[in-house]
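Message: A physicist's question: would you kindly supply an amino acid chain plus fold tokens?
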Amino acid sequence: MSASAVVSLRGVGKTFENGTVALAGLSLDIAEGEFVSLLGPSGCGKSTALRIIAGLSEASTGAVTAPHDDVGFVFQDPTLMPWATVADNVMLPFKLGAAHSADASAAVTQALARVGLSEFAGAFPRELSGGMRMRASIARALVTEPRLLLMDEPFAALDEITRFKLNNDLLAVWQEMRRTVIFVTHSVFESVFLSQRILVMTARPGRVFTEIDIPVAYPRDESFRTSAEYAGYCRQVSEALAQAMGVVA
């Protein structure tokens, strides 16, 4: 394990009770403050790896080092309580006793401001668009200012325009807070735009096939998204992903 690593996996495997081998020999290191994407098609074990890192699932084999008690998790579905306001949903980590704050209300106010939902604190999930519900979910994950933020394809179900906007906003929040982010996606374009480093995974059983650095300065905006440099990285990552999918376990 690297001395600066927040997360370290060594030879991690996961076999489910039905015999499905989701992961085999997965090893990776994630450094403090890094933004890293796990890229691969559906079913390659990305989400399983994220749940193991979060402590929501146990590895069958291998070693895992991660700050399980200082993690924010954003699922693909916002999973908001429909009977509670946005502010009450964001307050949930404090109500469950999973975190402590001298002023939880101030923490909620700040988290909502970070994701642009200050004016919707009293609204209910049914009154929000899909993008706004995801913003609320992100605010809930950020409210305790965790050391590690895990995001499991949070924008996959959104339209392209909303997805681009939330990508931009996520990077702005990450630059402000500089927490460690592990972002699961099956989108080459999203992984290149967001990440400092992309870990390309093989098909199931998943493991890291290769890693690709994206050494482009932040902030990243539309000028990067429409640049030849961006297109070049997307091509490089797409080629790596195609090669990874051809790997036989």
In short: Residues 160-177 form the longest helix (18 residues). The beta strands are 5-15, 21-31, 35-39, 61-65, 71-74, 148-152, 180-185, 197-201, 208-213. The radius of gyration is 18 Å.
